[in-house]
Every structure is written in C-alpha cells, then in structure tokens.
C-alpha cells in the first residue's frame, strides 16, 4: 500500500510517527512524508493524483497540516483519523460542547479571549484550570486558585480563545488512555499542575469503567487513533483532554500496533459515527413520549 504522512516540523525528529513510517516501509509499503509549512507543496497535484491509499496527519494543534488533510478528504481520499473527527478535538471549546451534548463526563467549561473575563465565574467553582482552546502537550496550563490571580495570565497569541474548567480533585497523577484501532492501553503520568510531585510515567492496568469511557469517546468523536486524559476524581472518571494521534508513550509495541492500525484503517475505513453524518453537534435523539392514557 502507499501512504502519505503529513508531519510538521515539530515532529520531524519525533519517534512517533517516524518510527511508524520506518516500520511500514520495512513491511514493503511505500510511504511519502510531507512537511506542511516547511517545504513547497503542489497542492492540486497532490490531491488530484489520488495515488495514496491513505493520508495520515501528525501535526501540532493549529498547524497547517489539518487543512491539507481536510482537502484530501473532500476529494474523496481516505484519511487516518477521519478528517471530520480531528478539528472537534483540536478545538477544546468545541470538544466541551460535543462532550456535553453526548453526556460525556467532562468539567463544565467557560470560554473567553481575555482571562480577566473569567472573574465573572462564581467563586464556588474555583480553583479553575485555564488553558488555550488550541493548546497541546500541557502548554500554558494554569491552576487559578482565586479570581485575583487572573490578572497575571496573558491572553492567547493571535487573539484566540482560552477555556476555564473547575479543577477536579485528584492525587496529582493523570491517567493517559490510548486507543490504536480498537485496542486500549493506560499509563500514569505526573500532572503538569503538580510539578512538585516526582515525575513518573509508567504503564498501569486499565480500569473497566475507564475502558468503556474511552470507547464511548471514540464513538462520539469518530476517532480511531487517539488518546484521552482522565482524572479519577470524587465523582468517578472525568475526561479533561482528548487528542488525535497522540504519542503512545509507554504503550507496549506501540510502533507495530499503530502501523497495523493505519494499514487496517486504510483498507476498511474509519469509525466516523455514520456515513451521512452532517455534524457532531447533534446529540442522540430523545426517546419518543409514551402515548397518553385514555
């Protein structure tokens, strides 16, 4: 098979996905690696050629690769993940809306471009976690204990959105859950909000209820290669972040598993909820009311 990997500069020396590329090539597949934003791309020629069995995206949030992947999908080409599934998890404000509409356990979310505006959030919801709506890799995540601290925060570059969510009480460890084509794995990592704790990252058993939640996230968003950050708080597992094509760090045989998933998805298609789905913002229909008694 032939694949086109879109790999931005941030990941040009990263083990994931470049080791996947090497593994696919060693297995006899042809893989072209393009670097959106770092090389000249003949866009029309790339899309019109239709010579790739699937396009795969590994970029930073807000990077130039997503638009190119969406163009390939609009031309009828197969993408991994499904191009329609990526933007709703890259934009954390949109993620929160979709999660709320589908009943996923995610903290209540407010959005604003100016962090000072979050002062209107009632103090009973503090402490707050404030982060960019297009953030990734724990970048610019702040724990705000009191509204007076908001003045210390800077707004996002380019006038983008910030989101604020009530802090979920936890033991300072994030549960990172990874899915590669239907297989689920869990690792435990020190939270960026608790830098005083000794840094740790190790594989851990995946609780059954968290596995079920991870599968539900994949179904709702139509993702096949993804990860989610889960906090085991007082009210049960809570999703605080979702990522398409994450690092898969500490996942056993991650390169082989991801490569196998890419080949399988190129042959069978994605897990997008329904082929005719127009939008993710449509919640499941409410049950029909019972007939009135006569």
Quick take:
It is built from seven helices and 13 strands. With 294 residues, the chain is an alpha+beta fold.
Protein described:
There is one protein chain. The protein is of the alpha+beta class. It is built from 7 helices and 13 strands. The strands form 3 sheets. It has a 5-stranded antiparallel β-sheet with strand order 11-10-9-12-13. A 4-stranded parallel β-sheet has the order 2-1-3-4, sandwiched between helices. The longest helix has 15 residues, at 254-268. The termini are far apart.
How is the topology of this model organized?
Layout: E1 2-7, H1 15-26, E2 30-34, H2 43-49, E3 54-58, H3 65-74, E4 79-80, H4 83-90, H5 92-101, E5 110-112, E6 128-132, E7 142-144, E8 162-166, E9 173-180, E10 183-190, E11 201-203, H6 208-221, E12 225-233, E13 236-244, H7 254-268
What is the helix content?
25-40%
Please identify the oligomeric state. single chain
Kindly state the number of beta strands. Answer: 13
**What average pLDDT do the residues reach?**
87
As a whole number of angstroms, the C-alpha radius of gyration is: 20 Å
Shape verdict = globular
What order do the SSEs take from the amino end to the carboxyl end, as H and E?
Answer: EHEHEHEHHEEEEEEEHEEH
- Kindly report how far apart the N and C termini lie: 64 Å
Main sheet: strand order? 11-10-9-12-13
Structural class: alpha+beta
């Amino acid at each position: 098979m032939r694949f086109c990997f879109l790999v931005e500069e941030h990941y040009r020396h990263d083990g994931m996905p470049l080791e996947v590329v090497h593994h696919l090539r060693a297995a006899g597949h042809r893989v072209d690696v393009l670097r959106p934003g770092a090389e000249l791309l003949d866009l029309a020629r790339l899309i019109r050629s239709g010579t790739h069995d699937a396009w795969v995206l590994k970029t930073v949030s807000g990077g130039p690769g997503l638009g190119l992947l969406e163009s390939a999908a609009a031309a009828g080409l197969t993408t991994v993940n499904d191009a329609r599934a990526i933007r709703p998890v890259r934009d954390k404000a949109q993620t929160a809306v979709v999660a709320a509409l589908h009943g996923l356990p995610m903290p209540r979310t407010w959005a604003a471009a100016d962090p000072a505006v979050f002062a209107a959030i009632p103090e009973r919801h503090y402490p707050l976690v404030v982060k960019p709506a297009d953030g990734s890799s724990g970048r610019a995540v702040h724990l705000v204990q009191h509204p007076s601290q908001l003045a210390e925060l800077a707004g996002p570059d380019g006038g983008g959105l910030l989101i604020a969510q009530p802090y979920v009480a936890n033991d300072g460890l994030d549960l990172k859950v990874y899915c590669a084509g239907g297989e689920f794995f869990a690792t435990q990592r020190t939270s960026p909000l608790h830098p005083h704790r000794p840094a740790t990252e190790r594989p851990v058993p995946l609780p059954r209820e968290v596995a079920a939640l991870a599968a539900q996230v994949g179904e709702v968003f139509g993702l096949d290669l993804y990860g989610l950050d889960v906090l085991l708080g007082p009210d049960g597992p809570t999703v605080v972040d979702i990522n398409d094509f994450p690092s898969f760090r500490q996942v056993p045989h991650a390169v082989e598993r991801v490569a196998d998933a890419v080949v399988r998805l190129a042959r069978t298609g994605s897990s997008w909820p329904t082929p005719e789905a127009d939008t993710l913002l449509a919640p499941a229909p409410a049950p029909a009311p019972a007939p009135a008694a006569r």
